[in-house]
Amino acid sequence: MIASRRNFLTQTALVAGGMLSIPAIVSAVESKKPKKKRLLFPEKGTILFQVDSITDAGREKTKQLPNNADSFGRGYAFIAGAALLDHFSHMAISVYNRGISGNKVYQLAERWDKDCLELKPDLLSILIGINDYWHMRNGNYDGTIEKYETDYRKLLALTKEKLPDISLVICEPFALPGTTAVDNSWVEPVRQYQDVALKLSKEFGAIFVPFQRVFDEAITQAPASYWSPDGVHPSMAGAHLMASAWGKTVLGIEL
Amino acid sequence: MIASRRNFLTQTALVAGGMLSIPAIVSAVESKKPKKKRLLFPEKGTILFQVDSITDAGREKTKQLPNNADSFGRGYAFIAGAALLDHFSHMAISVYNRGISGNKVYQLAERWDKDCLELKPDLLSILIGINDYWHMRNGNYDGTIEKYETDYRKLLALTKEKLPDISLVICEPFALPGTTAVDNSWVEPVRQYQDVALKLSKEFGAIFVPFQRVFDEAITQAPASYWSPDGVHPSMAGAHLMASAWGKTVLGIEL
């Protein structure tokens, strides 16, 4: 098994609508290990996970070290980051998690220099949007879908301007009805945020990770609360499901 | 991809020496999802990870909930547990982590009722031994290899007596020379502990997870310190490597 060759170039299946052109981010090379592959950047590179509580997942924020379990929390970013470091151990990769609970798009501008641009990521993965809707819905924020789109586009444009060679991953915000915080009245308004995320991923040539579709399929196997008790924050199972979808879509690896 | 069928019954490759008879713990069933498999227990069951700091990995110890990220820490048990809950979501599985940093075999007897037998695990995974050697080596413990074997056998016999239908997984203790705490003088004495673990796994019909071999292969890809800075506690990459080996050997799934 360990010595056999395998081809993991299967990431296209999860791409929303099958419409996006996906960068050939992974290419298999000859090796006795099935894991010997290369990322888009040739030998070394930096990967950054952003943005909100789903990414944060209780990470320590004093040292914020790369490739460090404490600095990664207990969510999908930890699992995906650990998988990345394991599968691409022959490369020199630094993985960071800079998610902060509660973040909405407008809050990113003020910390973007420190928490993104200065790290000079070769690959930036962003998951944002559910707080933009949720906090507006519960009266704690006066944002709109238009503000989400405008601010998100501005952030991506700035990032591309400062780091022209960056690879972008835009993750679809998601919500699971039938849970403690989410009911069916979320579906239509959340879809607007999802549509914006997809639209921006096309505009900026980003890889799109269709988390809503992934969870929609998962709830045919187990109830929504199994994957996310409140419908917003994933359980252990949900965190692995997300890491698995991220790994398959972005890296072409099975988790 | 999602709709394709795959056969994951590949766990034999990692079995030490290829000599053990492995329970057919996983059997693929017809499904549109590649993940639809069954564990040894038919529809529901409890899985328990034990014993020391490598398993503990900073978990919270107040609530000690099953299937809960906080209660699982940031190590291989979190990744393997999350993968298990994701891949076997169609079953009703409770996964616990009851690892405690610094534990040696003799310390398990006093907490075994509460931290194992009362949970009635259908599958128990044990990783123990490195502290039995390390603490003896640095003069903080007067145990011997004989004591390790005697106490370990007693613990397993008690477990089998109280829970006759339990499936056992014995994980090989490991050490990586060329790191901050471990040098080559560890190799031979640690091998004695590994030999005992393998011997007991045969005696009790346990699945054996050969972590030393897994790390030995991994250091052909990246330095030992990449997988474990101190040679005992795994990094993020090392934690995923372990979870991956555990998943492949015990569950027949690729992580």
Word description of this protein:
2 copies of one chain form a homodimer. The first copy, chain A, is an alpha/beta fold and 255 residues long. Chain A has one domain (43-251): SGNH hydrolase (Rossmann fold, 3-Layer(aba) Sandwich). The first copy, chain A, has helices spanning 53-56, 76-87, 108-115, 130-137, 145-162, 187-203, 211-218, 224-227, 236-251, and strands spanning 27-28, 37-38, 44-51, 92-97, 123-127, 167-171, 207-209. In chain A, the strands form 2 sheets. A 5-stranded parallel sheet of chain A has the order 4-3-5-6-7, sandwiched between helices. In chain A, strand 1 and strand 2 form a beta hairpin. In chain A, helix 2 packs across helix 9. Chains A and B meet through helix 2 and helix 9 of A and helix 2 and helix 9 of B.
Task: Record the SSE blueprint.
2 copies of one chain form a homodimer.
Chain A: E1 27-28, E2 37-38, E3 44-51, H1 53-56, H2 76-87, E4 92-97, H3 108-115, E5 123-127, H4 130-137, H5 145-162, E6 167-171, H6 187-203, E7 207-209, H7 211-218, H8 224-227, H9 236-251
Parallel strand pairs in A: 3-4, 3-5, 5-6, 6-7
Antiparallel strand pairs in A: 1-2
